[in-house]
Amino acid sequence: MTYNHRIPLLLVLVSFSLVASIASVSEDAPEYVVKPTSTAPELAGRWDSPVWEQANTLEVMHFFPAEQHPGVSDHKPETKARVLYDDKGLYIHFLVHDQYVRCIETEYHGKVWEDAAVEFFVQPKADRGYFNFEINCGGTMLLSYHENPEYTGPSLREGGSVPWDLAKEVIIYHSMPETVEPEITEPVTWHIEYFIPFALFEAYLGPLGELPGQQWRANFYKIATNNSHNHYGAWSPILEGASFHAPQFFGVLKFGEE
Q1: What pLDDT does 65 receive?
Q2: Which of 37, 61, 141, 256 is the most buried (most CB within 10 A)?
Q3: How far apart are CA 95 and CA 123, in angstroms?
Q4: Domain boundaries defined on the chain
Q5: 18-255 — its CATH code?
Q6: Cβ–Cβ < 8 Å for 233, 61
Q7: What is the pTM of this model?
């Protein structure tokens, strides 16, 4: 089963409009250069470590405005992310200066987006589908693959929930406890840092080829729907609707040269 984010009072219908995302990139879509690293991050939440300091930094700044979306708060937690890669996979690091933090989901592929969570949606190949990595502040993950409905070639695996035998290869560091209940109402800083092996992508898409010079599509999100201050933020702005499942508005990841 796959999950679509909805602002509760809007009941927005989601369509996976990948055709639009293949045809063109939104003029407002940002770009991020993913730098290669010869040293793998230690996955310990060290944002200012020498390894992570070599990475570019992006910020989740485009939050759904409360005045346009009933039920959404004015809370806009400062959320930054960095990405690196080596010959084995991707390294993602989110740094969140948050407040009103609640986290109760502990089951893989559960409703992690209801908790204080960060998300990485990525489309490695322009004619294929996208993956959504959704991880709450306690380190519990939801991971799905959504195939491009226009794709007619061979598929190695069907879309939907990524089976645990693949998902468990994602190594996750979380600085917060596995559960946070009751809600923390004071300001708090937390980290989610993780490693995604390229083999996970290739299980669905086949060989990725040489990464330097490639351009992938992606978006980064901050979300919480089951606390006192709901919010929905994106790196690449979502220009219509109210769903994170909007690949036509993904930004661009450019893989840097060695």
Answers
A1: 83
A2: 141
A3: 23
A4: 18-255
A5: 2.60.40.1190
A6: yes
A7: 0.90
